[in-house]
């Protein structure tokens, strides 16, 4: 809803301004543009591989912790451990459990950081191509139609093909 209000306000401003001076407005679907870039597919594949590696490592840690808990329970059931030792061992396992939680949280942060590292240069490249197309073709505004707030657009104002050409796609 917020995007809709912003888009309506922007379009109202464009139409009010256009009554003073005609300005050229274009649009581009950045989501379909992003999907057509081979480097984005490669980056997404790298991110998924990295995510799978972290998940595997996390699962291994969970399995190791479960094994330790089971061993402790077995030792307790067999009477091989004193209550004091049980308390100490259980405390150590709780610490490992907390460390596992921290690992899961840091894994999510590392995935986001990896994603930003790989995708930011591609987003910058797309923005630079859009800027060049706007400048070369005299567009005052280029709107992103992928957000679904574009109520009507003349197909001749679609600059996606120009941006793709600028990106070499």
In short:
With 169 residues, this protein is mainly α. The chain is built from five helices and two strands; from the N terminus they run αβαααβα.
Question: Explain this structure to me?
Answer:
- The protein is mainly alpha-helical.
- The protein has helices at 2-20, 30-35, 38-78, 83-137, 160-167; strands spanning 24-28, 139-144.
- A two-stranded parallel ribbon has the order 1-2.
- The longest helix is centred in the middle third of the chain and has 55 residues, at 83-137.
Blueprint (SSEs and pairs):
Layout (H helix, E strand, L loop, with lengths): L1 H19 L3 E5 L1 H6 L2 H41 L4 H55 L1 E6 L15 H8 L2
Parallel strand pairs: 1-2
CATH fourth-tier homologous superfamily: Skp domain
Write down the CATH topology.
Protein Binding, DinI Protein, Chain A
From the alpha-carbon coordinates, what is the Rg to the nearest angstrom?
27 Å
In terms of per-residue confidence, which ranges show pLDDT below 50 for 5 or more consecutive residues?
none
Percent helix, as a range, is over 70%
Give the number of DSSP strands. Answer: 2
Q: How many H/I helices?
A: 5
Strand content: 5-15%
Shape: rod-shaped
Q: In CATH, what is the class? A: Alpha Beta
Mean pLDDT rating: 84
Distance between the termini: 34 Å
Number of domains: 1
What's the main sheet like?
2 strands, parallel
| Derived structural class | mainly alpha
Second CATH tier, the architecture: 2-Layer Sandwich
Sheet with the most strands: spatial strand order: 1-2
One letter per element, helices H and strands E, the order comes to HEHHHEH
């Amino acid at each position: 809803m917020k995007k809709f209000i912003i888009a309506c306000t922007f379009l109202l401003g464009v139409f009010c301004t256009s009554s003073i001076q005609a300005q050229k407005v274009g649009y581009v679907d950045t989501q379909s543009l992003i999907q057509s870039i081979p480097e984005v597919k490669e980056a997404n594949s790298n991110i998924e591989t990295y995510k799978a590696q972290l998940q595997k490592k996390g699962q291994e840690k969970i399995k190791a912790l479960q094994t330790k808990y089971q061993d402790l329970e077995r030792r307790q059931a067999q009477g091989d451990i004193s209550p004091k030792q049980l308390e100490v061992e259980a405390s150590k396992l709780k610490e490992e459990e907390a460390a596992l939680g921290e690992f899961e949280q840091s894994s999510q942060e590392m995935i986001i950081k990896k994603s930003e590292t790989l995708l930011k240069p591609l987003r910058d490249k797309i923005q630079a191509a859009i800027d060049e197309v706007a400048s070369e073709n005299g567009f005052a505004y280029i709107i992103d139609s992928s957000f679904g707030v574009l109520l009507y657009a003349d197909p001749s104002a679609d600059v996606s093909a120009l941006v793709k050409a600028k990106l070499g796609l």
